[in-house]
């Protein structure tokens, strides 16, 4: 699954630079080559997906597109933003492929490469992660208040107002959010996961940059050798 650090990058709290975007795409391609090649298109993932009817490409179609190298086309798919991460596809896969994890990684890469993503999708991700980090649970009213405040879209707010009365009368919506028992511990775990992921990914990126620098230096040295030989030969002829 995608690390919380990557999730924070995805919602725009932390920015990618061009090198990082290329780096994470490279990691994704390696993962795809390792995992997706085992898919034999049984269709169990799509059959169990509760949101597949809204996708432009179903889960098994996404797996097949990745197998044949259509990564860019998949990264433009709206299915990445509509996936609800229920994990049904991963649980039902007879080849034990973490399909939901791959889709989440694809979503991260799409954000990293600044592909066209609806602004309200970014706002919802921000509201979701911010609410869980603060309360240790997901009080819907608080999360939606954050979402509506972020979207600043009165039409969207008014369109959902009709859902409020029945949810309140049935006790499904509480206006005063309460922190979960052990929320402080959840916050510490969350923070530690962020720090560990940040350190690991910085180390990986530094190693990649160092390898690129060594390759560049080796190329410069190889290019300089013929020039030095030619210069020496010219000196001998002159003398």
Count of individual helical segments: 13
Q: What fraction, in percent, of the residue positions are helical?
A: 55-70%
Report the structural category. mainly alpha
Intertermini distance: 69 Å
Strand content: under 5%
Which spans have pLDDT < 50 for at least 5 consecutive residues? 1-16
Provide the residue-averaged pLDDT. 77
The main sheet comes to: none
Structure summary, number of beta strands: 0
Q: How many domains, in number, for the residues?
A: 1
Topology pattern, helix = H, strand = E: HHHHHHHHHHHHH
Outline: globular
What Rg do the Cα atoms give? 24 Å
SSE layout and pairing:
Layout: H1 4-10, H2 18-35, H3 44-48, H4 59-67, H5 71-75, H6 79-82, H7 88-92, H8 99-112, H9 119-135, H10 140-151, H11 154-160, H12 164-169, H13 183-238
Explain what this protein looks like in three dimensions:
It is a single chain. This protein has 239 residues and is mainly α. It has one domain (4-139, 178-213). It contains 13 helices and no strands. The N and C termini lie far apart (69 Å).
